[in-house]
């Protein structure tokens, strides 16, 4: 009696071939990584040489030995240490504020029933279509009335809540927290604040962490609003300090790139420690959304 040939050895081979990534995918990913990393590397190369390096043809590839000299000039010309501390304070306050306040507003829009909820949420979403530059004059007038011009709170307070952050947290809370959980908590005697702080916020903490990190990075890189509202050198953020390195006519690219690299270095260190958690938060929000 003839037995059919065994196919047990073929299935794993087919499975392995199906899971194998095509070399073209690796080539595309490598090209994307190169295009993303090369500007940072080129900034470091110029920061270790001089301005002429940026105009050399063919361009210089290897770094020089001039970085510590230019970095010393950066700290001598502007109060760069104080600017770093100011940026850390501003970016941290904005990141934490967006994570908490946007989550609270998103919870209200997602799970609380109050008059005008949908209309107010529509207004919040529509504000995302307005260019940020149009808010500069009204914001400055408000800061002037409050006597907050040339203070760090003038930079912090307008960034504590964003329309995108409210939208992000509202969508995430709607998909994660169901009405049965809310009803069970109310039956147990929990108040609205207790439901948010003890039930809702722990469940959406990864999304709030991602939002807070995005807020931190945006506040760290922000130039326009701090440049308008901050006047004193001791209150400069790092982006304004880098601008102060440049003269009105001449731009020393080596000096400017040294300051830019020093300003970027804290963000690189931050992403080394929280990069994996950032990806997990984004992926969790994508799958749950």
TrEMBL record:
Entry keyword Phosphoprotein: no
Domain ABC transmembrane type-1: 84-274
The keyword Transmembrane is annotated on this UniProt entry: yes
Membrane topology: Multi-pass membrane protein
InterPro entries: MetI-like, MetI-like_sf
Keyword set, alphabetical order: Cell membrane, Membrane, Transmembrane, Transmembrane helix, Transport
Major place of residence: membrane
Cell location: Cell membrane
Listed Gene3D superfamilies: MetI-like
Top-level taxon: Bacteria
Spans through the membrane: 21-44, 83-108, 120-142, 148-169, 195-217, 253-274
CDD domains: TM_PBP2
Membership in a protein family: Belongs to the binding-protein-dependent transport system permease family.
Protein name, as recorded: Carbohydrate ABC transporter permease
Organism name: Plantactinospora sonchi
């Amino acid at each position: 009696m003839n037995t059919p040939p065994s196919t047990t050895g073929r299935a794993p081979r087919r499975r392995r071939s199906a899971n194998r990534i095509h070399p073209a995918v690796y080539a595309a990913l490598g090209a994307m990584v190169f295009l993303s990393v090369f500007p940072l590397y080129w900034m470091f190369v110029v920061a270790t040489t001089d301005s002429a390096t940026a105009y050399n043809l063919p361009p210089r590839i290897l770094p020089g030995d001039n970085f510590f000299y230019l970095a010393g000039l950066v700290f001598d010309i502007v109060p760069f240490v104080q600017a770093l501390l100011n940026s850390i304070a501003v970016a941290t306050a904005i990141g934490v504020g967006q994570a908490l306040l946007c989550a609270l507003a998103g919870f209200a829009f997602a799970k609380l029933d109050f008059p005008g909820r949908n209309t107010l949420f529509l207004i919040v979403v529509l504000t995302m279509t307005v260019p940020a530059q149009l808010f500069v004059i009204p914001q400055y007038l408000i800061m002037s009335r409050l006597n907050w011009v040339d203070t760090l709170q003038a930079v912090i307070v307008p960034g504590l809540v964003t329309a995108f952050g409210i939208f992000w947290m509202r969508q995430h809370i709607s998909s994660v927290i169901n009405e049965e959980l809310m009803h069970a908590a109310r039956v147990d005697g929990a108040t609205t604040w207790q439901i948010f702080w003890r039930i809702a916020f722990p469940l959406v903490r990864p999304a709030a962490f991602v939002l807070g990190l995005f807020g931190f990075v945006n506040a760290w890189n922000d130039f326009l609003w701090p440049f308008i509202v901050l006047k004193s050198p001791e209150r400069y953020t790092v982006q304004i300090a880098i601008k102060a390195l440049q003269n009105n006519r001449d731009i020393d690219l080596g000096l400017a790139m040294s300051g830019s690299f020093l300003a970027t270095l804290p963000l690189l260190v931050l992403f080394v420690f929280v990069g994996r958690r950032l990806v997990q938060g984004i992926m969790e929000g994508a799958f749950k959304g």
